[in-house]
Design a protein that fits this description.
Blueprint: H1 2-8, H2 11-24, H3 28-38, E1 48-52, H4 58-66, E2 71-76, H5 79-89, E3 96-100, H6 106-109, E4 116-122, H7 130-143, E5 144-155, H8 161-179, H9 189-203, H10 210-220, E6 223-231, E7 234-240
Parallel strand pairs: 1-2, 1-4, 2-3, 4-5
Antiparallel strand pairs: 5-7, 6-7
Helix pairs in contact: 7-10
């Protein structure tokens, strides 16, 4: 996880983060929308949410626009990403409290007695080992109010190597088509594959299968742990305290 924090504090990575995400994860907007649809709260409810890995503020921007009285505590280990989040959120930042630090040390970032209605995350928890992920989810449940929700939008790995290879082929082909030769990193299948391999190695990615991720939630104590949306290597899943 410390490797991924360092990677996201690099100026070049920060500058291209959102445009790269659009190329690599075209379902990002849909995933956030589905995560918000799952939450059973009225748009005018005064919710308090915890964002694990606020990044450039993409998920939190949608959350605050959807919940007009919502407030968010946004955690991230990379100060440079937090600055981008402040820019994206603009006036909405009045309803955000930014805290910089590694969310594996959640107890040091969230004070005793702080409670939340929702804990959400997007494209962040796959940097954790299974052990660290389960520990984090347990701690999040401790911070949730009764019936509160935990929702995660993230990447997965397939159950078998053969299926994973095919999904990776589809992934590379999609990036190639969307990039349309406008970026040297994404001009050929080979350059895309090299970029992705280097990126995932640098970030220390540790994606799990969907079954493993759901089992992590169940062991941590999440009730009704379910997948709400799935396409190839990406999913939205979660449940309640």
């Amino acid at each position: 996880m410390s490797r991924s924090i360092d990677a996201y504090d690099l100026p070049q990575r920060v500058a291209t983060y959102d445009s790269d995400m659009e190329l690599m994860h075209p379902n990002r907007s849909k995933m956030v929308r589905i995560a918000l649809e799952v939450l059973p709260y009225a748009p005018d409810k005064e919710l308090r949410a915890l964002d694990l890995g606020i990044g450039t503020g993409y998920f939190t921007h949608s959350f605050l626009r959807h919940y007009s009285k919502g407030r968010v505590v946004g955690l991230d280990g990379a100060a440079a990403m937090v600055e981008l989040a402040k820019t994206r959120l603009g006036d909405l930042s009045d309803r955000v409290e930014y805290r910089i630090g590694d969310f594996r040390g959640l107890r040091q970032l969230v004070a005793d007695g702080e409670m939340f209605d929702v804990v959400y995350s997007s494209y962040a928890l796959h940097h954790l080992s299974p052990t660290d992920k389960e520990k984090l989810v347990r701690e999040c449940l401790h911070l949730l109010r009764p019936e509160g929700w935990f929702v995660n939008a993230d990447i997965l790995v397939a159950e078998t190597e053969r299926v994973e290879r095919r999904l990776q082929e589809l992934r590379v082909d999609g990036i190639l088509q969307r990039a349309r030769g406008k970026d040297a990193r994404f001009e050929t299948e080979r350059s895309i594959r090299e970029f992705l391999d280097a990126l995932e190695s640098r970030d220390g990615d540790q994606p799990q299968t969907l079954a493993d991720d759901l089992n992590i939630l169940k062991r941590a104590g999440v009730r009704g742990a379910s997948v709400f949306w799935l396409e190839y290597r990406e999913a939205v899943y979660g449940g309640q305290k």
